[in-house]
Amino acid sequence: MAGAAAAAAAGWVRAVGVVGAGQMGSGVAQLAAQSGRRCLLVDPGTGALERGLARIRGSLERLAVKGRLGEGQDPGEVFARIEPRSDLADLAAVDFVIEAAPEDEALKRRIFAELDGLMPPHAVLATNTSSISVTRLAAATRRPELCVGMHFMNPPPLMQLVELIRGMATSEATFEATQALAGEMGKTTCISEDRPGFIVNRVLMPMINEAFYALMEGVGSPEDIDAGMKLGTNQPMGPLTLADFIGLDTCLAIMRVLHEGLGDSKYRPCPLLVQHVDAGWLGKKAGRGVYRYDAPA
Prior knowledge:
With 297 residues, the protein is α/β, with parallel strands linked by helices. It is built from 12 helices and 8 strands. It folds into 2 domains: 4-192, Rossmann fold (3-Layer(aba) Sandwich), CATH 3.40.50.720; 201-286, N-(1-d-carboxylethyl)-l-norvaline Dehydrogenase, domain 2 (Orthogonal Bundle), CATH 1.10.1040. The chain has an 8-stranded mixed beta sheet, sandwiched between helices. Helix 8 crosses helix 11.
């Protein structure tokens, strides 16, 4: 893969595969299609694919109405570049795959191992993990030098940042190709070492966790905690609202990675956060989290 960055910029990555049609995966697939590439969106659940495609169609239409889709971009043409699939074997000829499965290390390792046996020798395996070690995921393959972290922010079509993470074995060519692809998707990148939570969630999740402690201890109501942080620190939304938007199960999973990986009690997940997840109150996607919503997203 010598000169991979230059090749990527010139079109080396002709087709992108995305594994997982949830909110993150569908958003990443949309970005790949907007960059002019064919994109195979793979999810074994038919319902998940249907919901993901509907989410993409709606997003493209809204961007077009607001004039934010890009000059000369037609929502129908962009959408037509996305091909739904239900079998990982359909990715056998794809140059670059981005795994966007739930934040479960065992699941991601299984996906990486299976993809490694299917994809061509030059293909890159990227993970959208928000906290799990890229090095450990890469070790499930025979191509660790071609594995990399590519953490999109939620929602991917709107958020400007992609966090890039090198595993221990990630080659410079792989990293440069990934950074070039992110640029062609219109994203700015920041670079993190392969540490628990990386940069963004190492800072963000303890804040959300502390907001749950403040709520549990009666320091303030959810509305007052959110108003204080939103208006007092100029954030677009308060930490409890943001947690509901991200998904409380995802927040808890990341806090557990931080607590286990760093071994510091300051990362201990708040018991109230754990209770919400145990109750199935996972946030906006479930219709209830810290706040109630009219219907699941």
